[in-house]
Every structure is written in C-alpha cells, then in structure tokens.
Specification:
Blueprint: H1 8-41, H2 44-64, H3 68-81, H4 85-121, H5 128-134, H6 138-141, H7 145-152, H8 156-162, H9 165-179, H10 183-212, H11 224-229, H12 233-248, H13 250-262, H14 264-280, H15 282-295, H16 304-339, H17 345-353, H18 357-362, H19 365-372, H20 376-401, H21 403-430
Helix pairs in contact: 1-8, 1-9, 1-15, 1-16, 2-4, 2-10, 2-12, 2-13, 2-14, 3-4, 3-7, 3-12, 7-10, 9-10, 12-20, 13-14, 13-20, 14-17, 15-16, 15-19, 16-17, 17-21, 19-21, 20-21
Length: 444
C-alpha cells in the first residue's frame, strides 16, 4: 500500500474521491433525514407515490440524457493541456447544445406519456397534476455539462459542496413538512425545490469557474461546427448516451416496475432499500468519478492506467466487504430507528441486495478503461445485455417471489454487468499497444 501511494496519479484519484466523499457523506446523512420525515409524515402508500413521481421524472431524464461530462473530460482535458481554448469552447458548446436538446425531448416526451402510463405505474389520477409539474425538472436533470467542466478544471471541491445542496433542502423542507403536518403536497414541493436548487447551483459554480479562468463564450451552444471539427464526437456521445441511458435508468425504472406490479407501498420499501444500497456503494462511484479524468491523461499503451485500475478496484472491493458486514450487523436497527417498524421489511431486501456490493464496487474501473481504450461500443453492448437480462429477471422474480424477488434480480443484474464488462476490458488490455494516446482516438 505504501508503494501504491508513492504513485502521484493514484494519490490524486484518492484525494479527489475524498473531496467528493465528504460531500456525499453529508448528503447521505441529510438524505436519510429527508426520507425519514417523508416516511413518517405520510402513509406508506403516499410515500410510495412520492417515490414513483420522482422516479418517473428521473427515469425519463436518465433515458434521454447524454453523458456530456464524459465527453468534456475526454475531449476537453487534452485541449486544456495544450492551452487550446478555442477547442475547449467547441467541446463545452457542443455539450451545452446536447444538454438543451435532450432536455427538451425528455420534457415533451415525459409530459406526453405520463397521462398514459401513470395508472400502470401506480400514480393515481388525483396525484397526476403533481407528477406533471415534477416533470418540468427533466431539462435540469439531464444536464451534465457543468459537472464535466468542474471535473476537467479539477474543482472536485466545488462538486463536493454542491452535492450537499439538494439533500440539505430536502431535509430542512422535510422537517418543516413533518412538523407542520403539510402532508403529501408539502413533501412534493420540498423535493421539487431541492432538485431544482441543486441543479442550478452546479451551473452557477461552472459559470463562476469559467469566468475565473477567463473563458468567455464557453457555454454558448454549438452543434454543427464542433461536430465536424471534433473527430468522432457524434459517435462517442451517441454511444455513451445509449449505454448510460440504459443503465442509469436502472434504479428509477426498477421503482416504477415494482410499483406497477406490487403497488406504491412496495415501491416505497424498494426505494428505502435502494437508497441504503446506493449510499453504501458511493465509495466506488466517487473513485470512478476521480479515476476517469486521471487515466485519460495517461498513455493507454502503458501498464500504468491498467495497474491503477487494479489497485482502485481492490480498494473499492475491500470497502464493499466492510460495508456488507456493517449492513448485516446494523441495517435492521437503523431502518427501524429512522423510518419506523412498518418499514422493516426493507431490511430483508437491503441485506439481499448488499450481497452484490463487493462485485459492484470492485468492477467499477471497467467502464472507464473501455472508454480510455476507445471501446465505447463494447461498453454499450455490455450495458445493454446486462440491463435486458436484469429487466427480464425483475419481472420474473417479482412474479415468483414478490418484493424479495426484486432483490434477487438486482444481484443477478450486477453480476451480469460485471462479467459483460470484464470480457472486453481484458481484450482491450491484451491489445493496449495499438491504442492511440489521444482524447480524439479512433472509435473501436
């Protein structure tokens, strides 16, 4: 381990992950407060309806969202490295245009489909107006440009601060709604304002940082010009969009399927278990967010980025095993304390889902390595196969085993994704000497 930390790049990865971790830790604690207030301030059915409304908007956003932050890291970091500000403006302008386009498509599609799908998802007619209003958040939910700008400018400290904004407002608003007996409308308004404020805060931080670096015009939308000048740009953004749309919708769509098959109360229980699971897996997510920008600065033909992936994966896997032990020991009393005894069924689901945590965390470097190697199409195939397998298993296992079946399907989905990512990653490593060292490398 001492030898590992002698590597400056590895230290940078850990340092940036620590910045993000500090914000996520605060956010996770505040998020628990917000969920506890919502769970105790409403019936299980109303709590589940709130979860379904949020999941629908988030799911639509995830389906149409371009991963513009990855595009900015891959194309913008080398441009900054050679001090080519015009090329960097092309990258950020193209990313802004993609965010605007996907946000408009998501908003129109989400509003149009919701009246047709609401009943199937378990959203009652009386709650439909609230759900329609919540869909107006889709454009801000789909925007990833400010995150990419802050990452490529190495302002992970700013991202850490922003990560606490939404859960803080949710927690404060949740306490007010609970104490004031504001009921379902109070919690919907709280979650709406919190999501909007968190997204706008990220944009303000990006604008301020660009002004500080004297980069005017970096957020002016540009489509045609950058699309021609940035080699492989369209191929990259379309491929990563499809891959991440499939996988990022996993959580929200899972909530919707559970709600459709088992009712809003079960969707609420699944949300509680998934929230604890997501909080437990955050260390791997944080390492991934700091890992990807760093390896994009390294020569993929060397062993260095691949060795960093092994070290980072081992550390994340060890964290996952420790978290698994903590969940087994303390998960049940914590859920009972925070949400009340009526939600203890979520612990059985959480304990089951946490079995997949070690694999999920240890395998986080695979996707970044594939993007570094220009193998985004392989990542897309892996994501799609795993998501399709998970969706089929989710329907079948819920039908056979009820709510616990959703947890079983989740484990199978994580294992499918890890194996599907591992195979092309090993193939890319064997052929690493043929990988061009450029952010605009040829698409595999």
């Amino acid at each position: 381990m001492k030898h590992w930390f002698a590597d400056g790049v590895f230290r940078t990865i850990v340092r940036n992950a620590s910045f993000l971790g500090s914000g996520k830790l605060v956010g996770a604690l505040l998020g628990l407060v917000a969920l506890a207030c919502a769970g105790r301030g409403m019936s299980a059915a109303l709590f589940g309806t709130l979860v379904l409304i949020h999941s629908y908007a988030n799911g639509v956003g995830g389906l149409v969202k371009f991963q513009t932050w990855q595009f900015i890291v891959r194309y913008g970091a080398p441009a900054l490295g050679r001090d080519d500000r015009d090329a960097f403006r092309d990258v950020t302008g193209f990313a802004v245009a993609l965010d605007l386009a996907s946000g408009c498509v998501g908003l129109i599609g989400g509003l149009a489909l919701l009246p047709l799908l609401a009943g199937w998802f378990g959203i009652g007619r009386a709650d439909l107006p609230w759900a329609l209003v919540y869909c107006t958040l889709i454009p801000t939910m789909t925007a990833a440009t400010p995150t990419g700008i802050l990452r490529v400018l190495d302002r992970f400290d700013q991202i850490a601060v922003q990560q606490a904004v939404t859960p803080l407002i949710r927690a404060v608003g949740g306490v007010i709604s609970f104490a004031g007996h504001l009921g379902f409308p109070g919690f919907v308004v709280t979650w709406y304002v919190a999501d909007l404020a968190g997204d706008l805060c990220l944009w303000l931080m990006a604008v301020r940082e660009l002004r500080r670096r004297d980069m005017p015009g970096a957020l002016v939308p540009r489509f045609a010009g950058p699309g021609r000048r940035l080699g492989g740009a369209w191929n990259f953004v379309v491929t990563t969009n499809i891959a991440h749309s499939v996988w990022s919708a996993w959580g929200p769509v899972s909530n919707l399927i559970v709600g459709a098959m088992l009712g809003p109360a079960s969707a609420g229980l699944f949300k509680i278990a998934a929230t604890f699971f997501d909080s437990a897996s955050k260390p791997a997510d944080l390492l991934s967010r700091s890992f990807y920008p760093e390896i994009m600065r390294l020569d993929p033909a060397s062993r260095h980025p691949w060795l960093l992936a092994v070290r980072s994966g081992l550390i994340a896997g060890a964290m996952g095993f420790l978290i698994l032990l903590l969940v087994v020991i303390g998960g049940e009393p914590l859920i009972g304390l925070v949400f009340g005894k009526r939600y203890l069924e979520a612990y059985d689901l959480l304990r089951l889902m946490t079995v997949s945590l070690v694999v999920s965390m240890a395998s986080f470097p695979f996707e970044s390595l594939l993007y570094m190697a220009g193998r985004q199409r392989a990542a897309l195939v892996a994501e799609a196969l795993a998501a399709l397998g998970y969706a089929g298993l989710l329907f079948a296992m819920i039908h056979l085993f009820g709510l616990l079946g959703a947890g079983m399907a989740y484990i199978a989905g994580v294992l499918l994704k890890a194996v599907a990512m591992l195979i092309p990653t090993l193939a890319a490593y064997r052929k690493r000497e043929a990988i061009p060292w450029s952010a605009q490398q040829a698409v595999a």
